[in-house]
Specification:
Layout (H helix, E strand, L loop, with lengths): L3 E2 L4 H4 L1 H7 L6 H12 L5 E5 L5 H8 L3 E6 L2 H10 L4 E4 L12 E6 L10 H14 E12 L15 E7 L2 E12 L4 E10 L6 E8 L3 H10 L2 E7 L24 E8 L4
Parallel strand pairs: 1-10, 2-3, 2-5, 3-4, 5-6
Antiparallel strand pairs: 6-12, 7-8, 8-9, 9-10, 11-12
Helix pairs in contact: 3-4
Length: 267
């Protein structure tokens, strides 16, 4: 069959498939985030930017926080409201949002969501929006791919990787190829989805900005943030994964990057 290229993301448009492909029964990402917020004394009001299906937002709500989950996907937001109630869920654009001035004690941005800001203007708009949304001394907690990992590293590039999972008796397979666009500083992903239900293959393309640790420090400082943590793990998507009581590392060599930054109260 000829594959069909679609502009949307199959998993974003089908939240149940997303949760089947990326199960997180132990709410590891949510627990890691709550640990960071507690460690640095964040207040209770949290914005989860790019909340997806709402699992992490709901975990933070269950930990006693007042949470707003924001996403651009109406399908994700509808799923979150039904399956992960508690937070308030709103539609907002990562590339520039205004949900009020000084109304959050922390902004959380997990699973490389920040890297959907592909250009410097988009990054500036995101950080300006965070600065507007946060109280003085508010926190930004982000977790993403590490651009520095791809300097001279090719183990994740160019060779297709295949994953499969079963949902409601249908086996879904994804064949993913990553390439680096060094001029644009983007990690580009081509993914072909197939299923054993006779449906045609679907090809999808997406990309993440590759940010380097010192570049990220500079961007944050330019927007009035002081970096409190910047390291490659342990975190919710590292190997081995983060566990309660594990302290942050001091290196930025591995493929994930974790940052906690505090807004300078003079901004």
């Amino acid at each position: 069959m000829t594959s069909t290229t679609v502009p949307h993301n199959l998993l974003t448009d089908n939240p149940e498939l997303y949760e089947a492909r990326f199960p997180d029964p132990g709410r590891l990402a949510g627990r890691w985030t709550e640990d960071r917020l507690r460690r640095h004394g964040a207040g209770p009001r949290v914005l989860d930017m790019g909340c997806g299906t709402g699992r992490d937002a709901a975990h933070l709500h269950g930990a006693g926080r007042t949470v707003t989950g924001a996403d651009l996907s109406e399908a994700m937001l509808a799923h979150a409201r039904t399956h992960h109630p508690g937070p308030e869920y709103v539609r907002a654009d990562l590339h520039g949002f205004d949900l009020g001035r000084g109304v959050f004690d922390a902004v959380v941005c997990l699973d490389s969501t920040l890297l959907y800001c592909h250009t410097n203007d988009q990054l500036d708009a995101f950080l300006s929006s965070c600065r507007r949304a946060l109280t003085p001394d508010g926190l930004l907690v982000a977790e993403m791919r590490n651009g520095a990992y791809f300097l001279g590293r090719t183990d994740l590039l160019d060779t297709p990787t295949v994953h499969s999972f079963t949902r409601q008796g249908t086996v879904h397979r994804s064949t993913t190829t990553l390439t680096v666009d060094r001029t644009a500083q983007l990690l580009r992903r081509t993914r072909v989805w197939t299923a054993d239900d006779g449906s045609a293959p679907v090809e999808q393309r997406s990309a993440w900005r590759l940010l380097f640790p010192q570049e990220l420090r500079h961007l944050l400082a330019a927007h009035g943030f002081e970096v409190l943590e910047l390291h490659d793990g342990p975190g919710p998507r590292t190997e081995p994964p983060w566990q309660e009581g594990r302290l942050p590392g001091a290196t930025t060599d591995a493929d994930r990057l974790h940052v906690v930054a505090r807004l300078n109260s003079t901004h």
